[in-house]
Amino acid sequence: MLDEKDEKLSNDSSKENSVETNEVVNTPSENQATDDVEATSKSTAEESKELNEENIVSEDVLEEIDDSNAEDAEDTDNHQRHVIPLLDYHAMSMENLVGELQRLVKNEKVQAIRKHIDGIKYEFDLKFQEFLEHKKEEFVSNGGNEIDFKYNSVTKRQFNEVYSEYREKKNQYHKSLENSLKDNLEKRLQIIEDLKGLVNVEEDINTTYKNFKDLQESWRTAGPIPRNNYNDVWRTYHHHIEIFYDFLHLNRELRDLDFKRNLEEKQKLVERAEALETVADLNTAFQELQTLHKIWKEDIGPVDKEHREAIWERFSNATKALHSRRQGHFAELEKTYEVNLVKKHEIIEGIKAITTNVSKNHKGLQQQIKEIEALRESFFSAGKVPQKVNEKTWASFKDSVRDFNRQKNAFYKDQKKEQQDNLDKKRALLELALSLKDSEDTEMATSEMKRIQNEWKKIGHVPRKFSDKIWKQFKDACNYYFDRLNASKNEAQKDELENFELKAACLERLQGFHLSGNRNEDLDAIKGFIAEWKAIGRVPFNKKSINAKFNKILDALFKKLDIERQEAEMMKYGNKIQQITNGENTEHALQRERTFIRRKIDESKSEVRQLENNLQFFSNASEDSPVVKDVIKKINAHKEDLATWKAKLKKLNILKNNLNKEEVEEENDSVDAENDTEA
Description:
Layout: H1 4-12, H2 30-54, H3 59-73, H4 94-107, H5 114-141, H6 154-198, H7 205-220, H8 227-247, H9 252-275, H10 282-298, H11 305-355, H12 362-381, H13 390-436, H14 442-458, H15 464-511, H16 519-536, H17 545-560, H18 565-582, H19 586-615, H20 626-678
Helix pairs in contact: 1-8, 3-8, 3-10, 4-5, 4-6, 5-13, 6-7, 6-8, 9-10, 9-11, 10-11, 11-12, 11-13, 12-13, 13-14, 13-15, 14-15, 15-16, 15-17, 16-18, 18-20, 19-20
Protein name: DUF349 domain-containing protein
Organism: Cellulophaga baltica
């Protein structure tokens, strides 16, 4: 370790690492040597003061260069960190950050990527925290308890695995490096001690100079030392180099050779430093400047006093010029950061504007979610902002997004309740469809199936995980019923087509029928046609016009036989009665027919009353008036219709009573059979 004296010397050492004397003689006497040493001691303090005044380059840039070189001093490969680009991690997604982390840990030396890893981790932690808070809000909004919230993120797990790998590699690196750095530090401290001893050794100056050069070479190959010791050790080393050169004034030839070589090397460094002014890439230029300072410091000794001030001033000015360019560049960056800050504030305000008017329907809200996501992407890609407001800007952004997410989650929480209600409604319809799919009461079941299908369409969305399943079950039940109904209709269609053929043949024979002149025989023949027609049964719906043709021919025959209209209608109505009794649901059909006839009776009564009221307005008119005759004719026609409808209703009632009687008899027969069995 450095002793107290060395520490003091280290702190007093100047930026320029050369201190020379004013006078050197080749063969000094003992008194001359003493005088020269005293002169050197007097001039050293003055020269140090001059150097401290002359060598002031911007302290911050020199400290930055020293710190960076100290960091590189720990490992010869550490300089690679300068050529690994620092990306805009703020604009990258969590997945991309994990990918970049994997790439760095796998392909780059662990000691060269610390700043890169720190930047990635900082941005990943911010983004993941925002993501996790969003998921927690969703969990709570869906009815969960905050204390029970857990989230397993694949991306976070991948990040932790890669980051743990990095830490393990870093620990292994530092563990293996630690002993080596410690040994190298001991070597360098010993070299300093040996260098201090050269001044007090009484031997031939050439031998001493050779030993000095050997120590310099040993110093160059001693290896890296801990960065915390780097600058102090180098200052101490150069301090004693200067003392040795003060001592070396006794041999001007040796000293001048070193001064000349050092001056030539420093001139080359200065030229390289001055050339950096034209290098466009400031990062590359500054990295090169760091290297030049390292060479100036580590590899090249002092120069003579005559050139010392000028050479350092040139090097200092080149450093200042590049530093000034960098400062200007940073100032421009700060302006850019301010512009980025304005953009980000606008984005935050855009998010807040959407949040103040969150849509109340799914479609509109989905559109707003896309808009929010686009604004989030814009925020991350807007670039850096001034460091002093970075945390505040991020917090404002995060709060604005969280406010929107809370309202969005509240909406979908209500939607979820509504969807659950819809699910319950659809389950009820499904149960009804399942109960009807095997029904034999096709008229009732068909009507009900159509009704619940329409009702199903009116019910809104159900939870997605149930949507497909319940729809398939409902559709299958409906399809099963209608497929069975269609199969039954197809079978019935065959019978109806056969009935149509039979009725067509009957109609053809009726069309060829001629009255014989014997009224009773002709009437019996017509009744025979009617009976045959009744017995045939229904025809296809699209063939029902054949019934109208049949009735039209009957009307013509009845007219020729002078049969009253009501009697003719009742004879034909028997055909309708037969169709009702042959149907699948006789009771329902009877009820519907009775309702129809009652409505016709009411309509006929209403027409008669209206016409009779109208007739009172013609009290003074003659009965021979055409208008009066027309009204009377209409009244009589409606009364005939009324009588016919009443007769039809009576016939329906008789049919219904007969059917009821048959049903009672069947029940009685069933009871008697049961009694006989029990007996």
